[in-house]
Write a structure and sequence with these properties.
By secondary structure, the chain is α/β, with parallel strands linked by helices. It is built from seven helices and eleven strands. The strands form three sheets. Strands 1, 2, 3, 4 and 5 form a five-stranded mixed beta sheet that branches. A four-stranded parallel beta sheet has the order 6-7-8-9. It has a two-stranded parallel sheet with strand order 10-11. Helix 2 packs parallel to helix 3 and helix 4 packs parallel to helix 5.
Length: about 270
């Protein structure tokens, strides 16, 4: 059994249901779990002095694109609206490989950890052909750092020729996406208590995927008992898109495809 004592914490902000704030307390942990919050002292393998410090629970980042770390701050993308910004970047992102995903994920995760984030959900939806196990590369980076992840198997099936934004090389068929989703959930989704890695299904956005992919992803996620995630109502352009193509606003469109429930979360 490993143990940790954080002693003399000035203020512990619990973020519990009552927003309890504890003053001048010690926090004692065993095997990664808090056992005692009080003024009691305990012997421990590791002791951290929290004198004059605040203590918060680890932050949770519920939406990230870690692979985009390597392409941020490019001059040609500055001050662009979303759709044009994406078109420019897809020509760069179509060259993603395992190394790029591994190193950009590791940098992004390290930045999050430096600022108090202990869990990250990453929305990775660019899977160029024959680039290996990109989700596995992210998990390898996370394990080396010790951050908890709730990764997503994102997807796109509408390329430029279908009225979408990305090039053909980064989209897949619905069947390819669903097959890989099953394999990744079976390989990486850990349902155990204190799991360090879980997986959700996450088609990219209403303007990058077909209604078939959205509908079938929702069915599959519920069969596999995993969560669903996507972008929604990110810009006015998206609202215009769903009104033009489906005669519905974004949320109404998602409701029509079974994308509402306790197992769904949206970004933006």
């Amino acid at each position: 059994m490993s143990s940790l004592l954080i002693k003399n914490v000035k203020h512990l902000i619990s973020c519990d249901a009552e927003d309890t704030v504890y003053d001048k307390v010690n926090i004692y942990c065993e095997d990664g779990l808090i056992v005692d919050i009080s003024t009691n002292t305990h012997e421990a393998d590791e002791v951290i002095d929290g004198t004059d410090m605040l203590c918060f629970p680890g932050f949770i980042n519920t939406h990230h694109h870690l692979y985009q770390i390597f392409s941020r701050n490019l001059p040609q993308t500055q001050n662009k609206e979303l759709f044009e910004w994406l078109r420019i970047n897809y020509e760069i992102w179509k060259n993603l490989d395992e190394d790029t995903v591994y190193f950009s994920s590791k940098v992004g995760m390290a930045e999050l950890m430096k600022n108090g984030c202990t869990t990250v959900s990453d929305h990775h939806y660019v899977f160029p052909k024959d680039t290996g196990d990109l989700i596995g590369a992210q998990i390898r980076a996370a394990d080396e750092l010790g951050i908890r992840t709730h990764l997503t198997r994102g997807s796109m099936d509408l390329s430029k020729k279908d009225g979408g934004l990305p090039p053909d090389s980064v989209v897949q068929t619905v069947d390819e996406i669903l097959k890989d989703s099953v394999e990744l959930v079976e390989k990486y989704h850990d349902r155990s208590f204190q799991a360090m890695h879980r997986l959700a299904l996450a088609p990219c956005s209403p303007f990058s995927v077909s209604d078939t992919l959205l509908r079938e992803s929702a069915k599959l996620a519920r069969e596999l008992d995993v969560r669903l995630h996507t972008h929604l109502a990110e810009t006015k352009d998206e609202e215009d898109y769903t009104l033009e193509h489906f005669n519905m606003r974004p949320l109404e469109y998602m409701q029509s495809l079974g994308w509402v429930g306790d197992d769904v979360w949206y970004a933006h």
